[in-house]
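Journal club prep — side note

Before the paper discussion, L.F. wants everyone to see what a predicted structure for a comparable chain looks like in token form. Sequence:
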Amino acid sequence: MAKQTVLLTGASGSMGSEALKSVMETGKFKALVLLRKKPSNEKLKKELEQRYGDGVEVVFGDISNPGDCVKVVERSDYIINCAAIIPPASDHNPQAAEKANYLGVKNLVQAIEASKDADEKKFVNIGSIAEYGNRFFPAHWGRVGDPLVSSPYDFYAVTKIKGERCVVESGIKHWVSLRQSGILYDDVLFNNMNDGLMFHTCWNTFIEWATARDSGRLIRNLILLDSQGKLPSS
């Protein structure tokens, strides 16, 4: 039986890289990785090809380009969208955040809807708890169905809300949007020292974290259980 193909965007990021690693550890899927063409990703392409051989195919492109999305979506069974421009980069370059977090999702959705086997494709979008805005005690627990109200000046959250709305209102038959918490990854503190973003956290706020490794396991288990018919239909 031929292996199913998993399209992964954002594989150069903290969650995407762990998702790719966890999915490939199963030995049950082929991976199609969409990366923007730049020196660091050309290096990553070589590393992935050396590690996984023909189990991983890297395609250079951009989810903000509709044509690039069509080419890779058409060849995929599962579409995992981990691509995002996150804070503080989204604060300094809101145009890039709009392209990745909103237009990119829109392009993937439209590519799935237009594909010849649209009803068979499964779409996993990574949203964010930032969509809920600041949540202080006693209303600090975010729930599905709660209003999505971004915090003032948080353009990242705005783009994630817009992107998720594209998914919710789409004609895709099989989809889920996972509102991810903050991700703990190697060097997370070191990588955020220069901007000072970490010091924006209020003293009386509640913080929820998930590690990059556990986030990767989440994606692996989700598609693995689905491929085995072990997930409920609703």
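L.F.'s comment for the group: The chain has one domain: 4-227. Keep this in mind when we get to the figures.
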